Amino acid sequence: MKRRGIRIVGVVLAGLLSSAAATTPAFRDLNHNGRLDPYEDRRLGEAARVADLMTRMTVEEKVGTLLHGTLPAIDNPFGASGKGYDLAAVTTLVRTRAITSMISRLAMPPAAFAAQNNAVQRIAEGTRLGIPITISTDPRNHFAVVGGASVAASGFTQWPEPLGMAALDNADLVRRFGRITAREYRAVGLHMALSPQADLATEPRWPRGLATFGADPARVSRLAGAYVEGFQGSVAGLARDGVATIVKHFAGYGAEPDGFDAHNAYGKQVTLTDRSFADHLAAFQGALRAHSAGVMPTYAIVRGVTLAGVPLEPVGTGFSHQMLHDLLRDTLRYDGLVVSDWGIVNDCPAACATPTAANPQTPRAIGMPWGVETLSVEGRVVKAVNAGIDQFGGLNDPAPLLAAVHAGRISSARLDDAVRQVLLVKFRLGLFDDPYVDAAAASRIVGAPASVAAADAAQRAAVVVLQNRNAVLPLASARHRIWLYGVDPAAARSAGFDVVADPAAADVALVRFAAPAEPLHPFNFFGAMQREGRLDFRDSDAGYDALKQASGRVPVIVAIDLDRPAILTNVRDKADAMLGLFGTSDAALIDVVRGRATPRGRLPVELPRSSAAVSAQRPDLANDSADPLYPVGWSLSLKARK
Question: Which leading EC class covers this enzyme (predicted)?
């Protein structure tokens, strides 16, 4: 009997089922031997199935299990594509290198995406033991799209960014988001979320604050825990229909000096104190209590911190025995999977460390071996595994790890411990029993009307009212001529506005722009994509110039995408009303402006008063700039019109 390409064998559950219900259930014959083996038997517990499977695995298969590769796409080995996977290349990774975990960066319609992931599972089905593929993803249910950090929604529901959820501070909403998103992920064949970020956004210039829940340890802990519960489907850990979460980036990543980022050589160190590190660590407690399936350590070298009175070794956290074994495993009693961030064992050549216009960093020169640059790749693998890494993100080549195992530099016991962690997640997700999805159903589940309605409501609620002089908002119905900048005219017209080309001809102006940024590192692969530098608005900033064009001629509503905490000191005097956005569609914005929706957000981070205040504050401390223009929790009341 065949079903969706899966070979199965019949087994009678004599004595286990009542005579009325007794049938001959089907089991997958994963190793193609015509018998039901213990690891194929869904009646057994996960531990027993893992133990049986591991007795059948070769060293090469075990080593492949420790690699979390990248699913290569057509014309794009980085995987970012809308064309589909390069299935020939996938076959090499799965059948030759025994890799059974990979990240997907495809952005395509749900049914097509599901079909592509089914094709990957069919490749795995043909291997010696039929071990299914765990397919992971960066977040893809928001608005921000940054290479290596997030993926375009492409049909998935779009929710406020995590910082927008922090503006609402509603754990139940975060759980609901997690359950809806998990259903969408599983519908297309995604099993693992490389999220949430439990990092504290203590440095306002840091480009990754938007993906956090802010800078308050208690709030971050509470909401990150709710995120894990929602995605995984249970307060007790990973449910069979859930999505495994990998909470990141353990710990201190948000304290980057000058707001730089540890993806880049110039941002590889963070400096904290024992006291501030305790706050950054506390932010992870909720996710750990919720039994997140995995933890991902930060790239950064953490300086200024002692554990048990001993300073941390100056190496990236993925290589730190103190951080992963002593702190995470022994002190915090974490017993799940530890996955490295991508590329930590790769070399960092000149194009990585000091790129130039003539020699820019490309994907081939991506490496983050911070603190262990002088070690060989094999030496880095050895140090990381023995420190506590169970699986290497972004590593597609098993040779260094295999050589280390054969040389006895990694013990068979440590290898088995790591393999066991990876396999347990697969069994808990039910992938050994059926890794395939219904592509037709994916189109009904992903972006279902009820899910879209919930996400849209959250977008509107998360808006923060910063200023509303003379009660400009919500707009009276008589004000219908509008001048726009940065807003889709179609969204305004659909709400009944008459869009005009000149602010002098308008009743009101709506100007939308993002927080400022500067291209400080244009030749770094990640630095070129990340928003770095200043937070204050200056002449020649396009959105600021549009504001000045309208200011004084017509009432002006400014909507600011606060992907970073902008300095609004020279904006608020030119604006009649100001709205802070954290992942909001133009349609949602128009509804708030028109009074069709009530914004309920409160600032989840402070907005500084000046660049001098930003420079003077400490990157490891939360909300510590002098005399902020808008403090944490700021909001004005604005009720929807009936």
Answer: hydrolase
Work out the end-to-end distance of the chain between its first and last CA atoms, rounded to an integer number of angstroms. 61
Distances (CA, A) of 539 to 356, 422, 530, 548: 28, 53, 22, 9
Amino acid at 613: A
pLDDT tens-digit map of 388-413: 999 999 999 999 999 999 999 999 99
Asked if residue 358 is part of any domain, the answer here is yes
Same domain, 522 and 494: yes
Give φ, ψ of 484 to 5 degrees.
-120, 145
Give the C-alpha separation, 208 to 300, whole Å: 14
**Of the candidates 291, 367, 369, which has an alpha carbon nearest to the alpha carbon of residue 333?**
291
Catalytic (active site) residue 341: yes
pLDDT band at 152 (very low <50, low <70, confident <90, very high): confident
Question: Residue 16 domain-assigned?
Answer: no
Q: Are 336 and 279 in contact (CB under 8 A)?
A: no
Q: Domain check: are 257 and 140 in the same one?
A: yes
Q: pLDDT-derived band of residue 80, with 50, 70 and 90 as boundaries? A: confident
Which DSSP letter does residue 327 get?
I
> Are 434 and 548 in the same domain?
no
Per the structure, the count of domains in the chain is 2
Using one digit for the tens of pLDDT, what is the confidence trace for 614-625? 999 999 999 999
**Which residue in the list 138, 199, 216, 620 is annotated as catalytic?**
216
> Does residue 453 form part of some domain?
no
Which residue among the candidates 86, 341, 390, 576 is catalytic per the annotation? 341
- Is-catalytic flag, 75? no
Return d(Cα 600, Cα 461) in angstroms, integer: 5
Q: 């909470």: which residue's tokens?
A: 247
